[in-house]
Amino acid sequence: MRILQMIDSLDIGGAEKMAVNYANALSKEVEFSAIVSTRKEGALKSQINDSVHYFYLHRKSVLDVFSIARLRKYCVVHGIEIVQPHSSSFFTAFLLKLVLPKIKVVWHDHNGLSEFISPQRTFVTKIASSFFSGIIVVNDYLKKWAQNKLWCQNIIYLPNFTTLNRDELGITVLKGNPGKQILCLANLRYQKNHFFLLEVSEMLKASHPDWTFHLVGKDFNDDYSTKLKQSINSKRLEEHVFIYGSKQDTFSIINQAEIAIITSLSEGLPVALLEFGLCNKAVVSTDVGEIPLIVKKGNNGFLVSKEDVQTFYTNLVQLIENPDLRQNIGKALNQTINEHHSEQAVLKKYLTWINSL
Fold it and tell me: Per the database record, which ranges form the Glycosyltransferase subfamily 4-like N-terminal domain (predicted)?
């Protein structure tokens, strides 16, 4: 089998990381595994294994016919049988299907934002879906949305999986007091709800001022980013909330933190949660997307409603004041991830489904 992963960029993000994860994992399982970045390269390029064939399309616009011609030629030359576009790259795969009908397209929907998609974009997605051989979703909500809104009914739920490069060179050093650092690993985007984090930070500043928050993820330097930074300044949280931007040394950063948090309004299955689990970190998270299927309250983490700042703060304080609880919850989450979200378990289901197309 010859499979091509497709992603719009290789900037650090959940969907981008999963595209690389699939390409790397499949290189050990199929005849030919490749990945194409359609629009932009990025930091994740360095995480692509040597056994994976990499192609940069350099697409300049949505309807860049020359890039589609180059992509078609690449697929023909390398005998690609299945294209697996991740998130928004489905449209490029749809255009490829129009000029190379024999190829099978399997859309991998990660975004967890279907409730925010405009009717116009839903219509485009619906039209494109009629050309898909199958759809992979990362939570049950997305599966129901696809069943109700799209014209492809061959839909499978597959949880995300991840691996950590434990040999990476640690470059990033978190600010604040070692052993008292709280990590949020998420790009600066609306649905990640960093303003919720700021409310919690204000409360923690009053009760535990030596604990600090560390925001690691791509800064798009847009309106959301500007307002977030202005809010940090206006609330006088400059010494309590630190923004780092996108970083590659994920394993090193997570291991520096004592507690990890997720404050999202909407999610699929965040790769960050899996990474926290692999690193034995205690987690407090909002109860969105597929997270409640992994995190069991009080057992291997804490779950909070996405509007409940007070309970989020209370659970965080519990972890801060009880090192043994932090350790036990972190170990329990690690066990959950290893048992149910390993690369081997997910790939077995994936390959069985792919072979049935």
Answer: 12-162
